Each structure stands twice: as structure tokens, then as C-alpha cells.
Amino acid sequence: MARVKRHRLVSIAAVALLLFAASGGVAHAATPAGACRDAVPAHARIAAQPWAQQMLDPDAAWPYSRGGGVVVAVVDSGVDTDHPQFKRPGKVLAGRDFVAGANLPGTFDCDSHGTAVASIIAGDSLPGIGFHGIAPDARILPVRVTERDLGDQGQTLRISPQTIGDAIRYAVDQGARVLNLSLAGTADFPAIRDAVAYAVARDVVVVAAAGNAQQDTSTELPSYPAGYPGVLGVGEVDIDGARAPNSQIGPYVGIVAPGGKVLAATRVDGHAYVEGTSFATPFVTGTAALVRAAWPQLSAAEVIQRIKATASPARGGEGSDSYGAGLVNPYRAVTDGMNVGPPAAVPEFRPAPVDQAALDHAKWLNDVENNAGWLTLAVLGAIVLAVLTVLALRRGRRRGWEPGRAPSLAAEPAVNEPPEQIFLIPKS
């Protein structure tokens, strides 16, 4: 099928920042004969925990969801199952290769882009390695639509829209519940638009990169498939939470995630630092897998709404065309509204033993206080009675024991009643 000539629809990692440096002495992954023209070599492992995993802390959500039972389709350059973080049996499904054809699986990768994306979504933990995916128990369905992102001269390689459309439909028909599209372009191709609508109509959470073509903030470029209805578009932020200068701006940016110099797995083995909205997207895709596993009753639209509603605040404020709803928050996306702990046990009531000695002492004190009170009243009463008796005797002696008489009341003075009417103003 002819490739697109006038409009670009490219994997986001096509920017020159995604040039993986080779490390010597490591064998290349075995790929089907003739499938890769010049496969990128393996890399050395990086032990340090990357900043993106520290910022998002997906491990906090793992007691409640690890993405188990959710199939995530990665429509990309394939996924190399030789990498140790993908070797767990059943973790990566066979998938399909839409590039070389001949009914090949999607379990190989020539340039590490798809492997990097899939590792951010669901890469297993390894002893001594800080990097791991967001939803390690999710299963990856690799759907290969491109061999590599850059040509021999560093030019962007274009992908057939029909190939992408066919790959999306295949992923949906294979039971994918979440679809990662780390690709973007400014042209609206019917083959891709219809395929995305096919996925959305079948309750698939579709997550797509916003794109890396932004030159300045004065214009808003279109972006597809992020701009299609029902798709969650993802922008890129750096370690400081600031939008990457080339991360596209527009109403299709639903949320942002780390994408500036984030760590990811490479083909065969090892890790590399990568950059672009291509790699911000799988952080959100992995979160969607966590939510689908924890809340299986939610529709795809409700999963997207939940991810946006639980996002952490970003610099642009809520609803910004640069930052969307904010920074993806895996823990809150899973646990908000969830009873995350067992109910506290009510302690058994055990009454304290009776201290009879203390009770007897308290009764004795109470009796003493009561007796003292009554005795005090009796003494005071006796004193008052004695005083009154002495006063009465003295008064009686002075009068010779004659009864006293009350003084006569004065005669009531005559009252001069006023006349019935008093005229202060003479009659006319």
C-alpha cells in the first residue's frame, strides 16, 4: 500500500531527541529474517529509580490494582519480548505485524520505540532496577505498524493511515480493553478516524499522544487521533511539571504526564532516556489499565472521566489547553471512592476490677463530711438561739417585764378632691 506523501502521521518518537545510543558488547535480539534492516542494539541497564516513577508513585495503587486481567494494545513498532521485564509467561501476547506481513507476530522490535512504550505501561519489576511499568499485571498486545521512526538520513518516516486503521480494528477484535496510540499528525484520515470510532463504540479506552509539533504558544495545531471523539489526548511535562516546549496545545489535550527525559526499556535489554508525548502517553494508558481492573463496571468514557477528575493540579489550571485536567495520578484514579482499608475492630469491653478499699475509703470520707456539716449547723443554731435569748432577757428587764405597745397610727389627712372639671382656658 502506498505511503502517505503529503501529510505526516508519524510515531511521536520521530523527533530527533529519540536517538538511542548503542552500548557495545551486547547481542542483538533475534528477529524474523529480513524484518529489520538495521536493528538498534541493546543498552546497558540503569538501576536508579527514574523521576517519573517517583513523581507518580504508581506502587501506592498496587495493593488495590495492578492491572490484572486487562489487555492493553500497543500500536507501534512492536515489543521485544527478549527484554527481562517482559519475559514473564503470558505477559506479552503474540499480536501481529502489519509491516512485514507473512502472518508474523508483533513480538519483535527494530528500534525500541514500541518496547519503550510498552515498558512504561506494564514492565515488570526487576531486583536492583528502579524502573518498572505503571500496571505490571496488565497484558500487552503488540501490533506492529512501523519498522522504525527515522530513516537513514534522520528524516521522518511516514506510516500508511490504512495500516494504522487496520491495526486498531485488529486490536479491538482481539479483546483489547485499552489502546495506546503513541502517534500523531495534523491530517484527519478517514481510515484512522473510522477505526478509532470502531474502538470507542466497543467500549475501548483510547489514549493518544498530543504531538510534538508545537513551535510557540500563539497557535493551536490540530492533532489526530488525539482530537477524535472519545479519545484521551496526552501532553508532556518535564521534571518540574512544566509543559515541554514542543508538546502541542489544543482542546484535545485531556491530561498531561511525564515525558521529558523519562526512562524506558530498550529492545533486548537495558534502558534509555527518551523524550516526547509518545512516552507521556503510556503513563496514562497504564493508569487506565489500573482503573479498568479496579472498577470493571465503568465504561470507557467513565474511565477517562475518572482519570481526568482525579488528576493532580497542573500549572495551567483545570481545563487548560496546555495541561488539560492536570497531571495524571494513578493512586487517586484507582482509590478515590474506594474503601481502601478493613474496618477497625471494636475493642472488647472489659470493666476494671472493683477496688473495694477505695470505695470504703470514699464512703468514710463522705460520712465524715456529712457529720461535720450537720455538727457545724447544730453549733451555729445553738449560738444564734443563745444570742436571741440574751437579747430578749435584757429587753424584758428594762421594761420590768411589761408588754410593749405599738405606737398609735397617725390620723389620715383629709384629701381635697379636685372638681370634676377644671377649665384652664376661659370659655369664649
From TrEMBL:
The keyword Nucleotide-binding does not apply. It is found in: Cell membrane. Residues 1-29 form the signal peptide. Residues 67-326 form the Peptidase S8/S53 domain. The chain crosses the membrane at residues 372-393. It comes from the Bacteria. SUPFAM superfamilies: Subtilisin-like (SSF52743). It is a single-pass membrane protein. Keywords: Cell membrane, Hydrolase, Membrane, Protease, Serine protease, Signal, Transmembrane, Transmembrane helix. GO terms for molecular function: peptidase activity. The active site is at residues 76, 113, 278. GO terms for biological process: proteolysis. PANTHER family: CEREVISIN-RELATED (PTHR43806:SF11), PEPTIDASE S8 (PTHR43806). Belongs to the peptidase S8 family. This is Type VII secretion-associated serine protease mycosin. It comes from Amycolatopsis pigmentata. The gene is mycP.
